[in-house]
Amino acid sequence: MAGQRFLIRNTDARDLLDIFVVSAASSIVFVRFYLHITGYPTVGGSKYHIAHMLWGGFFMLIAFVLNFAFLGARLHKFVAFLAGVGFGVFIDEIGKFITHDNNYFFRPAVGIIYAILVVLYLTTRILTRKRPLTHTEYQMNALRRLEEAVHQDMDLYERAATRKLLRLAHQKDPLTKRLHALLDEIPVAPAARPGPVQRFRMKLLAGYEALLRRKRSSTVLRWFFALEALGFVAAVLVAVYASVDDVRGFFLGQYDYGYSLIMGQLLSTIAAALCVLAGLRWVAASRLRAFEWFRRATLINLLLTQFFEFSRIEFGAMPGFVCNLVLLMAISTVIDLETQHDEAINEAA
Hints:
Elements: H1 13-37, H2 52-69, H3 73-91, H4 94-97, H5 109-127, H6 135-145, H7 147-150, H8 156-168, H9 174-185, H10 196-212, H11 217-242, H12 244-251, H13 257-280, H14 287-313, H15 318-348
Helix pairs in contact: 1-3, 1-5, 2-3, 5-14, 6-8, 8-9, 10-15, 11-12, 11-13, 12-13, 13-14, 14-15
């Protein structure tokens, strides 16, 4: 046991952490919507009040017990979902614990919750950033994937992913050789029907590839993102018009919570628009670099602009958040395709 690493990285960690973050955010929206339409009912009668924070803790406890007691990739996805729901229901009551009067409706609470989710998202990205694994980590992750063979449920994609892990491990290691041989003997199951997110990505890629076959694809891309930049400018103008008193107060030195939020929203929106303009310069020379700038713009909107919006207008910022989230997914999918395209060109050269 001496000399062994305590933390062994999991190649499925990013997917599991994404499930956790998305389910946490979704549960907060659901709880707030449910409480609003039901008139904020009290659970526990006239004498007691069972805060839903306790239900969140209970869900997280169940997730921990399931994770400790049972095995399986499918179970781990369910555990990530259940733990995320529990965390979301738990953190939703943060307003009660940072105010003297236990105010659930404390206005900055939604912004604080959003900031916590953003920090959580960034932490997952840091923990799962693409760095080479060790020989042992490649072997252990390959062994974990072999559990699909026990269920007779390993399809071609899963076998190829397992094979890739083994190829990155030391080829002279006896265990690596045995795992290669075992993988060759495992029968391949039919591919599972893709889920809604995967179908969305497949349709998106098909549409993007069809666009690239057109002669004026660069012009279409330029117009699309130019309109996005104009949309950012329009958002700035609308926000200024709707909050002209706040903007005037800020420049007159009347620093207030609302003034700071509207100025933060304006500055971050301008920064996002500048990133889009920078990307437009690269559309013809390097689509990959252009889309990387477009992704930066979308991330600024998600991580900064939306924080200020949620803090200022609370859940009125949800439509913009959803649109930016879908746009980020689409841009990330296209970046993956462009990266593969550039790698293929470099290998051919």
